[in-house]
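testing teh design pipeline on a random one, pls ignore if ur not involved
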């Protein structure tokens, strides 16, 4: 083997090892994300009534980021001990109304 072939072989081995490490890390991250989603779903089943969960699922179709924020807030409130009973659909509607009412109204006036 010449020196050039040896260098190429080493570089290829390094690149293969890096690719394997990156794939393993990506797989770990994906597994952690799935595990987090499962835990989140289980917690939400404990703190929301079926109708409230259904409302969030419907809302997720149009505003997924917003629903994600609401779910995380509900979980944090539960873990802090501020929510002690299941949240009903009516309570969830009120919470959503309060959160969305903070949004500014944009009006366009034509002259």
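output:
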């Amino acid at each position: 083997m010449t020196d050039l072939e040896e260098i190429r072989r080493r570089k290829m081995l390094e690149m293969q090892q890096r690719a394997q490490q990156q794939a393993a890390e990506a797989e770990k991250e994906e597994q952690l994300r799935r595990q987090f989603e499962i835990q989140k779903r289980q917690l939400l089943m404990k703190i929301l009534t079926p109708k409230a969960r259904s409302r969030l699922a419907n809302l997720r179709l149009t505003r997924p980021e917003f629903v994600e924020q609401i779910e995380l807030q509900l979980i944090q409130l539960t873990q802090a001990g501020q929510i002690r009973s299941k949240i009903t659909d009516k309570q969830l509607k009120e919470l959503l109304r309060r959160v969305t009412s903070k949004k500014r109204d944009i009006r366009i006036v034509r002259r």
